[in-house]
UniProtKB/TrEMBL annotation:
Major facilitator superfamily (MFS) profile domain boundaries: 27-474
Key words, A-Z: Antibiotic resistance, Cell membrane, Membrane, Transmembrane, Transmembrane helix, Transport
InterPro entries: MFS, MFS_dom, MFS_trans_sf
Localization (cell): Cell membrane
Database matches in Pfam families: MFS_1
SUPFAM superfamilies attached to this UniProt entry: MFS general substrate transporter
Classification via Gene3D superfamilies: MFS general substrate transporter like domains (1.20.1250.20), Multidrug resistance protein D (1.20.1720.10)
Recorded topology in the membrane: Multi-pass membrane protein
Residues that span the membrane, as ranges: 25-49, 61-81, 93-111, 123-143, 155-174, 180-202, 214-236, 242-261, 282-305, 311-333, 345-364, 370-397, 418-436, 448-471
Name of protein: MFS transporter
Chief place where the protein resides: membrane
Amino acid sequence: MTTADAATTATAASPTSVRMTGRQVAALVVLLASQFMMAADFSVLNVALPEVGTSLGFSTGSLQWITTTFALCAAGCTLVFGRVGDYVGRRRIFTAGMVVLTVSSLVGGLADSPTMLLVARTLQGLATAAVTPAALALLTTAFTEPGPRTRALGLNSVMMSSGFSVGAILGGVLTDVFSWRWAFFINIPVAIAAIVVVPIVVDESRAEQRSRIDLPGALLITLGLFAGIYGVTGVGEEGLDLAAGGSLIAAAVLLGVFWAVESRTADALVPVKILKKPDIAFGNLAALFIFGGETALIFFTGLYVQNVLGLSSMVAGLVLLGIGVGQIVAGTVGPRILQKVSPRTMLGVSLVLQGAFMLPALWATSDSYWLIPLVATQFVNAFFSMLAALCFMVIATSSVDSDAQGMATGMATQSQQVGIAIGIPLVSAVFAAVIGQGTVTAAEELTGIHTAIAVAGLSQVAVGLLLWLVLRGKARQAASVTA
């Protein structure tokens, strides 16, 4: 029986026997606040991009780099920093990342040129790559009992998922009330508080068995992900041109070489035997669709509300709050569901339902009365999105021993970040192919939104069915062993 099986069985058998200590609660609060802030940083400037461009002199075509530079560093370096944390200490990496976040937020808030802002966003992406897997690894090592651990991971999933949607809303509010610069400045007090409090309430943790760091593997996986995310982003914005196609080919080559190198390296960054575990492989595959699909849904909801219905950004924000509420509800009740149903079984079912409740948007029209059913179905979609995210996180972090927690959480976090980074560009490529170039009418844009949503939702349903078929056998085996 694996650790994941044991965790599920123990939690089901004694859901309330173990309670969190006061120190654990304090650690949970500060780590979850940090996770929420890092997730919000990804999208906090999205709404304010036009104001940033006007203020600093960005051209319209170069605005996307404000988001892309962050995404490249956050998604490309997460696994490396997660593994480094196993060696040098996860709390140390967390604290160093928070220091970098503090400095980069100050630089971003004071930026007076495009170059200065992009440097700040690059540093913010690196800080996210360091802090996010370290915080998750500290959670999994601080909460070793199945019950508290599942609750902590459930709350972590809420913070990571809702942070993206709330970040977009927060960025709009800060920009309207104060200035886009406060989207950076607001990070500083939270980061300083984390730097002070974490050493007091969180114990240091690192792998008991230390070996050399796999520098070739780290370089290959980082460059491969950089190239892949850059290529996918390019396809979504400009189509499959020479630069985007070349980047995708380079990514395939680099990741193929990475696999070959890791197969022959004793101290591999990610041992191939870990990647071959069905829990790890299919769990991280699920994360790409869970987070990629949800961020794409958020993006196209904003387009529908503002461009098709002609309503304000505030209304779009209220619709997105419906998604946030669904995620919070699922994060609250999800651990109780997993006390009764195996995460392996629930992962596929949740992803199928997440995709299925995206599809009612295909019947949305240009009449504003569609907002009510849209909010209702997206609430349910968000509920199952969060439940799937919780299942994925429990599986991904419970299938390896404590020495490899930094690697496991790094992989899990990286899958989330990659999904967020490529979800919008991929679905936007479908949208762009439908509406074509030049000025489009609201009706034409609605057709593009319908097609994009259909592709995203049906992809989630298909992958969810695959996961259910593959992982339900392992769930049954676990049940028979523990019976």
